[in-house]
Write a structure and sequence with these properties.
about 0% strand, single chain
Length: about 260
Amino acid sequence: MDLATIIGMLGALLAFFYMIWEGGQMQMFVEFKSPAFVVGGTMLGVMIRFSMDHFFKSLAVVAKTFTRGSDDPQVLIDEIVQLATVNRKDGLLALEKLTISDPFLEEGIQMLIDGSNPEVVKQSMTKNMRGIIERNSSSEKVWRSMGDAAPAFGMIGTVIGLVGMMANMDDPKAIGPAMAVALLTTLWGSLLSNVVFLPVADKLKYRSTTEKLNLTIGIDGVMAIQAGQNPRVIASVLSSYLDPKQRVNFDKAKAK
């Protein structure tokens, strides 16, 4: 579970409602029409830009943002080294008996076991990686579009409210409350954009970058296993993908 996303969103929303509660205007701020207009308008407006299938798949992807943490590249490297060790001792066919946690890595190893040409394996895995990255990028674009559209629909709702208020100015006492309600859609548009839509888009982009790193490590690992390289050499080469702090931890773990 990704605690950073959950804690960040809940913390921001709690701070928002705390400020409203302190101002004694909770009932006005939790009215349904303003957030419903912003959310509905944003979803429908963004749906116009993408296909129906693409739009709903991108909404489903967000579940990973809350339920799955980032895949640790060090864990992947450890698994590749283990596979390389078995391969050196018992050959490629022995790898078929092992359980491989990463589906992308498993697919590449299976191609080696089936006797595929190394160049074909690399091309196939590279093509698969490009497809995964493209799908991740497409989902990010949908959520970023929602982040851009939400403030605009908030402003549209405010303009509609102000037009209605200006058309009924017979009672001066009603102008203040009517204007406050009209401004709520702008507030909700800004809140949803900066607390939900844009953060999810940025999280998907971050996840895509991390996944690209793991996919690259997977391809290089499969190629190294196929070439029969020494597991220690493979560990050293693949650890170069890690940032310096991760590399230090990786070296300490190997020394134990």
